[in-house]
Amino acid sequence: MKSIIYRIEIQTRHETELINITPRVIDLIQTSGVKDGTVFVLSLHTTTAITVNEGLPDLEKDITGLIHNLVPEENTYYHARFLPSDGQMAVNAPSHLRGALLGFQVFFPIQDGKILTGARQTIYFVELDGPQARAYVVQVMGE
Amino acid sequence: MKSIIYRIEIQTRHETELINITPRVIDLIQTSGVKDGTVFVLSLHTTTAITVNEGLPDLEKDITGLIHNLVPEENTYYHARFLPSDGQMAVNAPSHLRGALLGFQVFFPIQDGKILTGARQTIYFVELDGPQARAYVVQVMGE
Amino acid sequence: MKSIIYRIEIQTRHETELINITPRVIDLIQTSGVKDGTVFVLSLHTTTAITVNEGLPDLEKDITGLIHNLVPEENTYYHARFLPSDGQMAVNAPSHLRGALLGFQVFFPIQDGKILTGARQTIYFVELDGPQARAYVVQVMGE
Q1: Which range is least confidently modeled, A64-68, A87-91, A127-131, A134-138?
Q2: Per-residue model confidence as pLDDT tens digits over A73-127
Q3: pLDDT of B141 strictly over 80
Q4: What is the ipTM of this complex?
Q5: Residues of B whose CB is below 8 A from A22
Q6: How far apart are CA C101 and CA B98, in angstroms?
Q7: Cα–Cα dist B38/C83, whole Å
Q8: From chain B, which residues contact A within 8 Å (Cβ)?
């Protein structure tokens, strides 16, 4: 059994942003040489998410709208205070909570060297507190 | 290590509907012959979900109520326009967003040939834009 | 390939409570001897959750606030009736729904015998209907 781990750097450009990472995941499965197994995709941050949806710009805007509706910027949060570890005020409580709702990881089967997804399933890296330099991990497990 | 993938067809009957697929998952683990490993269950659509909860009809109604409350039909959505790829108006933005909140995949350990779940954990395929012909995947990995 | 499954008992102390289980997961990976693979962490209950966030007490309060806002105690729920199987009234519909929003399972890669997480990622067991005696599972898969 092989376990091959790729750490992918990504520079986001907006406060909230859905970035289609499906082609990158597909490439890495091919690079790994794994024919049968599972691919795990996860973000390494707590103010980002990984989600799957149909790859349409209007749905990307609707997902952005949803998480801003459910976790409004103007609410009062405990995580809004001086953080000694960061040397600055924390102002990103909503980013953390939006991530908790969307989740930050997905998996898909690999069959005959190919990812098994539905025809409309697009894998998104979701920036929730950008722009920032970010990273996510793609782990390919199998034989 | 074995990786055995089953694609299960399912015909839903309602607009929103929670269908208990636990017995099917248990059967497929037994069919696979895998004794120690993990089972992965995922939907292949972006307007469905996979969730786990106690298998009670009143909770199924409460989950339906929750996602309709959090993602109301009457809100304004960007994904509400003519889609050339489908040849019709998109009217299912809420279905996509409800799926994003519930998630669309779960896993469970397999121990001595049996799925390891809590006594009250029921695996549900959740239709969010039905009725439709749907499919989900059960992948059994292990030895 | 090894699959080693640990069942961890935990006594919660509050109605809603986030308990950092990261050190326990790290210990179990070391105990397992697995060097390359994946760790799966899942709760065995339907009124608890597993979530990942930055390990700060103020964020724990904000997550608690979020799920209480999105699933208010005072709403009307179907799951609020006499349950013959339990011999008492069900009063915990909100606990079930809060769990459905947060999810109840996560995974992380294992590389060189160590869990691969982001620097700020803390794994939480989330009590949503406590205090109770609870259990979660840590499965270590790999070689």
Answers
A1: A87-91
A2: 999 999 887 778 778 877 899 999 999 999 999 999 999 999 999 999 999 999 9
A3: yes
A4: 0.95
A5: none
A6: 10
A7: 33
A8: 1, 3, 5, 40, 42-46, 70-71, 75, 77-81, 90, 93, 96-97, 99-101, 103-105, 107, 135, 137, 139, 141
Q: From the CA of A58, how many Å to the nearest CA of chain C?
A: 23
Q: How far is A87 from chain B (nearest CA, A)?
A: 34
Two tokens, residue C85:
């199987």
Are B66 and C97 within 8 A, CB to CB? yes
8 Å CB contact between B114 and B22: no
Q: From first to last of the 143 residues of chain C, give the pLDDT tens digit.
A: 899 999 999 999 999 999 999 999 999 999 999 999 999 999 999 999 999 999 999 999 999 999 999 999 999 999 987 778 878 877 899 999 999 999 999 999 999 999 999 999 999 999 999 999 999 999 999 99
- Alpha helices (H) in chain C, listed in sequence order: 22-32, 57-70, 93-102
The H or E element that residue B6 is part of is strand B2-11
If you write DSSP's letter for every residue of A3-53 in order, what string do you get? EEEEEEEEE--SSSEEEE-HHHHHHHHHHHT--SEEEEEEES-SSEEEEEE
**How confident is the model over B90-114, as a mean pLDDT?**
96
Cα(B18)–Cα(B67) distance, integer angstroms: 12
Task: Using CB atoms, pick whichever of B59, B118, B119 lies closest to residue C93.
Answer: B59
Q: Report how far apart, in Å, the C-alpha atoms of B82 and of each of B87, B89, B91, C40, C85 are.
A: 7, 4, 9, 42, 50
Across the interface, do A62 and B107 touch by the CB < 8 Å criterion?
no
